[in-house]
Amino acid sequence: MLDHVPEKSDIIDATRRISGYVHHTPMLTSGQINHIAGCSLYFKCENFQKIGAFKARGAVNATLSLREDQRKNGIATHSSGNHAQALAYAGSIVGVKSYIVMPANAPKIKIEAVRGYGAEIIFCEPTLESRESSLQKVVEDTSAFFIHPYNNYSVIAGQATSAFEIFQVKNDLDYVITPVGGGGLLSGTLLSRNYFSPGTKVIAGEPSGADDAYRSLIEGRILPSINPDTIADGLLTSLGDKTFKIMHENIEEIIVVSDAEIIDAMKLLWERMKIIVEPSGAVPFAALLRKKENFKGKQVGIILSGGNVDLKKNYFNM
Amino acid sequence: MLDHVPEKSDIIDATRRISGYVHHTPMLTSGQINHIAGCSLYFKCENFQKIGAFKARGAVNATLSLREDQRKNGIATHSSGNHAQALAYAGSIVGVKSYIVMPANAPKIKIEAVRGYGAEIIFCEPTLESRESSLQKVVEDTSAFFIHPYNNYSVIAGQATSAFEIFQVKNDLDYVITPVGGGGLLSGTLLSRNYFSPGTKVIAGEPSGADDAYRSLIEGRILPSINPDTIADGLLTSLGDKTFKIMHENIEEIIVVSDAEIIDAMKLLWERMKIIVEPSGAVPFAALLRKKENFKGKQVGIILSGGNVDLKKNYFNM
Question: Hey, is the C-beta of B270 within 8 angstroms of any chain A C-beta?
């Protein structure tokens, strides 16, 4: 497990380590979408990733980076979202038990998906305090190794492999845009940019109902995400000290978008590209559309971070 | 324009003719779906095709096959669905006017898509009689060349290119399954199978609410589709004499599925593969799931014929 900001070689190592367990996701383009956006877009499809989101990269990299004696009692985390599935999947790969603390009100479909990988679920109250105390108890009881969803250098190195794959085939992009929640994907992307495509600017999209990263960067310190309220349910968390430091030192800009803009962007992706992208995954494209004029004629990579949606919800008729 | 059942060389010619105007669509696989289905599935993604459906293949092939003097006054058809967009697209490619007869109650989104390609739309009543008489008037007034949605050998040769692409990379499939509406895709697939992968069995899926092809094959003559009622709105039409003859001589089996089975199959594709498939496009997968035991351990190609859906409809919460 890395104890330092991932270096170039750590990201290359992570790519090798996780290959065979995660997909080298395709990069798709669409003439229709380029026409609407007024620029050339390259969509990195992490919605097609194992467990339906980029989180598989970080969880698998961190789990495979543990020594045998570190992981022999299992791995643990708290998450109601994609990291829960990702860690359960990672545990199934190495054949160790995974303990996932989830709020009791998590969607049934996510609970079943986590169980599907053979994880043990520990239910808690839907508060950060309850999550953390439940996790602490699990770790004390089982000696499982805690893998944080984003504030962990091996997780960050894993998430960095998505942008690394982009730069391997396309290293003349003007911009790459990612979403930002806890900052794992964003900080990994920033590091990959520094090492593999220094001429590319990295921008993040963030929902206005959970704009703690935007405000934190202005203040120069981590402001917590308090009562976040957005349709982009993968981006509710606060930043960590490790992700914040990397972001603070490297990022160009955060573009804040409304839920209505997220839904419009998501609808375009579903309708024109015929692919399912979750609200959080549509945030970077929404950010681009909001500041279209800034990207006119440019080449822009966009990480579609995930595709796990509740199909019973009708996002487009609300 | 072909005046005979497409031969092997006609399908190869069609593939060359349309390349550059239509996509060589990807073939996708999914471990999760294979697990559910109990066999190895190869999904040919015509939902990613130009205009969002395989219909672009036939319309472009037919239009490009016309002599200059045949198409100089434009091209015409009647369709409320994907063939309308496909022919409008084909007209835009060769730079001739397209006249599309559409029922006045066609979905606004489809009307706009057809207009987006610069076609002239002629509205009619939502009956077959009105469609045909309106079309006849258009052809008399403009001398445009009528291109039938399916009962046309050049259209059939165009639709055959999808299965040809499958067999170019995978010629040891046990089965290929397509949907059947008017029979253009199915008869093209049967011909490609005969020429390029004779060991493969071809099966069609058909909705129970529009099972005229199933009944026609039993009777040995074309029975019209009367008051069809199914969520698979691309499969409402009756067979043509050209498509029926090819089907009658070559097909293995038609599997009839209910609307509930179509929605279940569609949900699996959206949820697990993160791709948008329209109800008609999910019919072959629904057919496979209905007779799962027949396909156990087999290699099966499935043509996902299109991805044009109305996202305001909530298919999964009805």
Answer: yes
Residue of B nearest to A277 (CA): B274
What CATH fold (topology level) applies to the domain B8-53+152-317? Rossmann fold (3.40.50)
Measured CA distances, B165 to B25, B169, B196 (Å): 8, 7, 10
Q: How far apart are CA B78 and CA B124, in angstroms?
A: 10
Q: Judge whether A307 is closer than 8 Å to chain B, CB to CB.
A: yes
Does the CB of B47 have a partner CB in chain A at under 8 Å?
Answer: yes
Measured between alpha carbons, how far is B165 from B160 in angstroms, rounded to an integer?
A: 9
Asked if A274 and B48 come within 8 Å (Cβ–Cβ), the reply is yes
Given a cut of 70, whether residue B166 has pLDDT beyond it is yes
Q: Is A80 an annotated catalytic residue? A: yes
Domains B8-53+152-317 and B56-146 share a fold: yes
- In whole angstroms, give the CA distance from residue A26 to residue B145: 41
Nearest-CA neighbor of A315 among A269, A275, A264, A274? A264
Give the three-class secondary structure for B151: coil
Rounded Cα distance, B111 and A303, in Å = 32
Is A55 marked active-site? yes
Asked if B274 and A314 come within 8 Å (Cβ–Cβ), the reply is no
pLDDT digits (tens, 9 = 90+) for B109-145: 889 889 999 999 999 998 888 999 999 999 999 999 9
Give the predicted TM-score (pTM) of the model.
0.94
pLDDT at position B244 over 80: yes
Count of Cβ atoms closer than 10 Å to residue B143 Cβ: 12
A107 — pLDDT class (breaks 50, 70, 90): confident
Res B318 pLDDT > 80 = no
Helix (H, G, I), strand (E, B) or coil at B239: coil
- Whether B274 sits inside 8 A of A52 (CB atoms) is yes
CB contact under 8 A, A274 and B52: yes
Domain ranges of chain B: 8-53+152-317, 56-146
Residues of A in contact with B314 (CB under 8 A): 312, 314, 317
How many C-beta atoms lie closer than 10 Å to residue B149's C-beta? 23
Q: Is the ipTM of this complex over 0.90?
A: yes
Partner-chain residue, chosen from A267, A274, A312, that has the shortest CB–CB distance to B275? A274
Per-residue pLDDT of A28-50, as tens digits, reads 999 999 999 999 999 999 999 99
Which CATH architecture does the domain made up of B56-146 adopt?
3-Layer(aba) Sandwich (3.40)
